[in-house]
């Protein structure tokens, strides 16, 4: 008798030839294509579908959030204002050999004359002045003052002499024809450049027709330079300039403000003439580009940012530490109480968490005042003399107290969520082995709760070093953070580049901590409201 | 009970293969057909491909090769929600935001049934599982067994002809499991539905099913009614997997159509039934059920081969005695004997001889 | 912590009770500054501390004049309405985009999942002053600075991390066999989404929305820079009030905001309970 004979016909045995055929060659899908391909295709489709769901938000965040951050990073090194406002001067400075010992030569001043004349028409010289003023005080008024004067420079002598020698030179239409001729343009480079600038200026800034306007003095000045260089293009009125009465542009500038012949001023302009600069970053760490171009410390009296960074750090640490100190007992209590009681007490943690930041800050502003509730109570209790009320606000104390209160829930919540996962049996086991309360806590519970301390501390620290509102309101001058300085530079001093550089440093700091937090806790594990 | 596969197959798998990564086959060439009304269990260790087969039948996985037919029509390209197959999930998958009644109503609403008809069917289905008064409860307010019953009712409420069950009793305790095993088979037979049941619990498979398909390594190792599966395993995997089993290894010495002689590795000769062996010199693994091992040699043929054995341990189990023996160099050989007056109670260290009927000892693949 | 065993030593008893006192003091520190605002806001005088009349519980010492000022003075009413015009729209944007993305992120195969997640969460981590500075520069460039939509966009970006976090958390606990069960019972993908998946993740979506709302409603730094006088919000008004001359009406405003917080907190707690109940025996 063989049992195998009773096997039903459809019953497959351990090995069937059909299975082997496809196992040896590449596996094929139902449509005959290699299975791997169709599986990959299916996977790609799945990825694409997931990506399509995510992409609207991703695009949104990139535009509404990431691009602004990128813009800020860009602004921290961007410095096109000098080369955009004074293009000719920057080019001429590159050729100049006199710096840094002496003021630059005449060609630089001639270029500056054209640049400044145009900038004054656009009124962009004042912006440049304030920009350069961040690097060396006094430059703002220098640009402002000379910007007013530059239109009245005594260069009209060239205009008069040229027009007298060749009256056709007074006619803008004739000018426009000459300047359409490439040969003439080539022979009179300064003139062509000045003419183009004048035409653009007339059209753009003054909205006039250049063919009906008097040609400005600076074009004739440029023409004089070209002729003085020996140009004599055909088709252009030939004027002999050797007998012309001339004037030194440098002297005109010196007359307007003698700072113009100060090599230090020129050194600043030269240092900040490239399109990108490390100047803002150097400024952020209390350094500057010295006259030789090397980085050097700023004078002691101007060193404020390192101190501010340092203060931001230590105050954040102090706040984080107070949060641990106050948060740990609470989290421990909540995690050991029965769930029902813990949930009720949790409300006391969550209510501040959910209450408007402004409300909490207002509360502290009201409470901490010298005539506020806390001082009143202390006086009433006789702990403080009425005349010596405590100064609790507008200093570091105020910031630390208010911020600890504000960030405490951010410490308690992660601590609690870690502690809740520690089984109570561990403590019981420790005690059954003879440990007393303290040993059981210190050797068993505490090590297990350390991840919670880590998570809470990083979170509190990250939030703290970027805080703006609370320090601004209760911090006075000695309790403010780097954020407040950034806000000041954006809205008051308008030194956006410096604000951006300070912001970039702060951002780098925060992102490093964020990365650490992601490593330790994982961003997916961020929990909100317990 | 056994119904061999027949021409009017209701569910058919034909040369079905499945691979998740294009390299490894999870299901290798599956052929299976079951007639209407059969209760078939897919049994196997985890990762053997049984759940994948069930998911392919339900439509949650697609076969990479081959065809699956329901009532003669290929369902390869029918999405799961159009297949009309009832299913009971491993963790019940009751919708937590709906009451029991709403859960049962869901498939009927999808099928656009009128309100009164829905109410009637829901009431009937709940009565069927004796859960009539729980209609307005939420699933989370029910115990595991109650949830299981509701899941069953939900799978049956729209009167599918085929119901799939994926380890439905896995999360329940033993006693409840046995009650529900009985209830499920009873219900299935009463309603005449076809059931494909997946489990890794062999007792469940043996007690509930008309036929059991034992899965391993992506293949059906044996498809047979429970008694046949237990008594006549076709290969050593099935022999090992179903019930308790003693294994000895050796080489075929002599073979004919109905019996063979195997020389064990320590030189002893035994009689066996050739199942998976065909020629002399082949290595084989012989399998004997503990209850078929005989120490009373008078009950055997006179010319039967016997083996010497040393008693290692004697365990009193009430109705049976369980004796662990050292046989042919292995000390995990189990002999199960009935607690009868003439049955000696052996002591550790005692030397005995054991034997068996040739047809109880199956020579399988090595 | 629940009570002391009978064998506790004196030291243990002292420690136990002093520990409870310490905890009570910390709870007091947490909650008192908020609660004390409420009675102070009913001060009949323009003081920021309790007057002797108030301490004597004399009805003369109390009045609702600060509330009258809050609800009639355009200095407060205009910002209040601005806040109410900005926050819901920003919330809607965050919730719509955030929920969609969270569902996408919960799919099994998402390329660069971690990096995308980090970018989407970053508005919560980057200090507000930096976001505000960047947005001020960038929005001026594209002409959004000082406009209603500029503020809405900025606030929506700030609210998104909260939506992502809460919705993802609900989806993590989501049992895939539920959608399979729905399909098996005959429901197509659309019906499955609206009848099974959506109701189950709804608590997460709503609490994410509440977070996004409160983020926008409380936000002051970004609106200070991105907004202009036309978008002055309630927190902005409070901030200027606190920085310049502080008027007691601010206490009334604060009390109103506290009531809103309490309502939100209760709503959230109800939602959390509901969600936990829905997810039943397998919490978390």
UniProtKB/TrEMBL annotation, chain A:
Protein origin, superkingdom: Bacteria
Keyword Phosphoprotein: no
Domain named ABC transmembrane type-1: residues: 309-517
InterPro entries according to UniProt: MetI-like, MetI-like_sf
TM regions (residue ranges): 50-70, 313-334, 341-359, 396-419, 440-469, 496-517
An individual GO BP term: transmembrane transport
Annotated compartments: Cell membrane
Topology in membrane: Multi-pass membrane protein
Keyword annotations: Cell membrane, Membrane, Transmembrane, Transmembrane helix, Transport
Any single GO CC term annotated in Swiss-Prot or TrEMBL for this entry: plasma membrane
Gene3D superfamilies, per the entry: MetI-like (1.10.3720.10)
Region (Disordered): 1-29
PANTHER family cross-referenced by the UniProt entry: ABC TRANSPORTER PERMEASE PROTEIN, INNER MEMBRANE ABC TRANSPORTER PERMEASE PROTEIN YDCU-RELATED-RELATED
Family: Belongs to the binding-protein-dependent transport system permease family. CysTW subfamily.
Protein name: Polyamine ABC transporter, permease protein
UniProtKB/TrEMBL annotation, chain B:
GO cellular component: ATP-binding cassette (ABC) transporter complex
UniProt keyword annotation of Cell membrane present: yes
Family, per entry: Belongs to the ABC transporter superfamily. Spermidine/putrescine importer (TC 3.A.1.11.1) family.
SMART domains named among the record's database cross-references: AAA
Lineage: Bacteria, Pseudomonadati, Pseudomonadota, Alphaproteobacteria, Rhodobacterales
Gene this chain is encoded by: potA
Domain ABC transporter positions: 11-242
Gene3D superfamilies: 2.40.50.100, P-loop containing nucleotide triphosphate hydrolases
Originating organism: Limimaricola cinnabarinus LL-001
Matches recorded under InterPro entries: AAA+_ATPase (IPR003593), ABC_SmlMolc_Importer (IPR050093), ABC_transporter-like_ATP-bd (IPR003439), ABC_transporter-like_CS (IPR017871), Mo/tungstate-bd_C_term_dom (IPR008995), P-loop_NTPase (IPR027417), PotA-like (IPR005893), Transp-assoc_OB_typ2 (IPR013611)
Keyword DNA damage: no
Protein's name in the database: Spermidine/putrescine import ATP-binding protein PotA
PANTHER family: SPERMIDINE/PUTRESCINE IMPORT ATP-BINDING PROTEIN POTA, SPERMIDINE_PUTRESCINE IMPORT ATP-BINDING PROTEIN POTA
Catalytic activity, as annotated: ATP + H2O + polyamine-[polyamine-binding protein]Side 1 = ADP + phosphate + polyamineSide 2 + [polyamine-binding protein]Side 1
EC number: 7.6.2.11
Assembly description: The complex is composed of two ATP-binding proteins (PotA), two transmembrane proteins (PotB and PotC) and a solute-binding protein (PotD).
Automatic annotation (TrEMBL), chain C:
Bilayer disposition of the protein: Multi-pass membrane protein
PROSITE patterns: ABC_TM1 (PS50928)
Cellular localisation: Cell inner membrane; Cell membrane
Keywords: Cell inner membrane, Cell membrane, Membrane, Transmembrane, Transmembrane helix, Transport
Entry GO CC: plasma membrane
Transmembrane segments: 19-42, 86-105, 117-139, 151-174, 200-226, 246-271
GO biological process, one term: transmembrane transport
Protein name: Polyamine ABC transporter, permease protein
Organism listed in the record: Limimaricola cinnabarinus LL-001
Lineage per the UniProt record: Bacteria, Pseudomonadati, Pseudomonadota, Alphaproteobacteria, Rhodobacterales
